[in-house]
Amino acid sequence: MSSNSVMQIKNLNLFIENAHILKNINVEIPKNCITAVIGPSGCGKTSLLRTMNRLIENTPGAIKDGEIIVDNENIFSPKVDISSLRRKIGLISQHPFLLPMSIFDNVAYGVKISGIKDKKQISEIVVSNLKEVSLWEEVKDRLHHSPHKLSIGQQQRLCLARGLAVKPEIILADEPTTSLDPLSTNAIENNFMALKNNYSIILVTHILRQARRLADYVIFMYNGEIVEHACADEFFNNPKEEKTKQYIQGLFY
Asked: In this structure, which CATH number among 3.40.50.1980, 3.30.450.40, 3.40.30.10, 3.40.50.300 belongs to the domain 5-248?
């Protein structure tokens, strides 16, 4: 794996109840970049993302082979602690997943689980991460209120703050702006653009315009396979594969 890569996927295959979902995936994910994974519905984008932090193992009938290398270790090794892995590789879902606790405790939850007990330190971490996702000014006077009264966009940023609080290396984002209004979408996109200085972001999106706006690197999938992957400028302006050209031109979805 090259020094500027954060993850290497080697000969990855995924079967779910005998259906071949991911087919011989080989790709390296660049460090401190936004990598967009694009392709039509049902092509395997979300399955690929869920395999990257082993959430796919919660799917009945899922069988995988191959390797995903992070920090020089295969994440499928029996030596890997799954809880530690998921702190290292956090997931932001399409719809905000709020814990049944206050705004403050939603962010503090993972911090406490990781073993930090000092209340002052926990408070500093919560405030810092709410500021990092541009949410602090909007919630600072209601930290101990339920997050369910927040807008959907604010809830999604709260989930992002919770993920960042445990200091991940990689952020997986599965169509995180699908249910958001344009202003909230812009806020999340701006967060990602700032965060890539310190994190590696892998973004599944079905919106080509979003991939063009955000991506440094693009992976195009079709029918469980990677058709083409390249730096964003090369991918969008000089695609090599005919299927890629057709998808970019909107000839199929």
From this structure: 3.40.50.300
Q: Which residue has the tokens 């899922």?
A: 62
Q: How many CB atoms are closer than 10 A to CB 34?
A: 25
Which contacts (CB < 8 Å, 24+ apart) does range 232-241 have?
Answer: 232/36, 236/212
Q: Which residues of 150-173 are buried (b: 16+ CB within 10 A; e: fewer)?
A: beebbbbbbbbbbbbbbbbbbbbb
Q: pTM for the whole thing? A: 0.92
Q: Is the pLDDT of residue 250 over 90?
A: no
pLDDT in tens, 178-237: 888 898 899 999 999 999 999 999 999 999 999 999 999 999 999 999 999 999 999 999
Q: Is 145 helix (H, G, I), strand (E, B) or coil?
A: coil
Amino acid at 75: I
Residue 3 neighbours by CB under 8 Å, 6+ apart: none
**Terminal-to-terminal C-alpha distance of the chain:** 33
Domain locations along the chain? 5-248
Residue pointed to by tokens 């954060």: 6
Given a contact cutoff of 8 angstroms between Cβ atoms, the answer to whether 142 and 85 are in contact is: no
CB 24 within 8 A of CB 14: no
